[in-house]
Amino acid sequence: MRLRPLLAAAIAATAALALAGCSGTADATSSSAASDHVIRVGALTPGNANDGAFNQALADALAKLQDEGLITYELREQMADPATSEPVVADFASQGFDLVIGHGIELGDAIFSVAKDFPDTHFTASGGADILDKYTDNVETWTYSTPEVGYLSGYIAGLTQASPIGRVESLELDFVKATDSYFQQGALAANPSAELLPVVYAGSFDDAEAAASATTGLIGQGAKLVYTTGDGIAAGVGAAASKAGVLSVGVSPAAGAEALKTNVSTVDLDMYPIVKAWVEEVADKKFGGKGVTSTLENGGLVYQDINSVDGAVPSDVASKVDELIAGLKDGSVTIS
Prior knowledge:
The protein is an alpha/beta fold. 38% of the residues lie in helices and 16% in strands. It has helices at residues 28-33, 54-67, 82-94, 108-115, 146-159, 174-190, 208-220, 233-244, 257-260, 272-283, 317-330, and strands spanning 22-23, 39-44, 71-76, 99-102, 122-126, 139-144, 165-169, 200-201, 225-228, 247-249, 267-269, 291-294, 301-303. Strands 1-3-2-4-5-6-12 form a 7-stranded mixed sheet, with helices on both faces.
């Protein structure tokens, strides 16, 4: 899953407005014709909005809220470079958008910089857990529960009884390492005898070829299941695992049907409840001064239905996962 906290972006760029955007409404006429209670949203993602993972979670939420008549929106993709994104953020604000969403840590600096100059515009910024205390009067901050994502993914992997377990991660960043640590806890809680092979870093969020090579290497070491945290590398993990007949966890639907054939499940973001809450706060003039975390409890984290992989996955995995989630929600299960 691509939160991309702690990833510094400092690449020389061309003018921001030259970048093609994806528009969910998109024209000024429709926006001006909207009734007063319809919130106008400008959003930016660091990658492609059809990635089936982090970026698409926001795009899907915006589309659903527009279908419900709550917002009109414009979405700009490939905004990882702050030299490109900051002019776009400023343009949204100067055009009078009610809410500007920066979906990814690469966008944080641009959001906070522009927000100072537009105190009457509402903004959101995302990052690791440390961003939650960085909110301002007009910037709300967001992250997701790394412990829940990692532990639940590991628990699902452990319940399959497949061992050894390999892990292909993106970059050796703090939040990625934390997710992996929680994954290991979850896997061993479900299967104390599981063998965990050393994690391999693909060196990128999106290099599917590198991820496929890393997966093949782990399978060569005996891995019977390979886990990844999603994004573009998931396509490589899923393809290599499926080709070898090895189970995977964490492959997104964007990887394609073949890659999903042996994928047991994936813990996903659902940005709808989070974005809807922001929109309602803007409408009610109650926005600002807090941070929010996507969790299983608030519906910001969900998991894909368990794939039996033609009987290779024990039949009780789904019920055990539901029991774990219920325990996490009611507090009877805690993650340390």
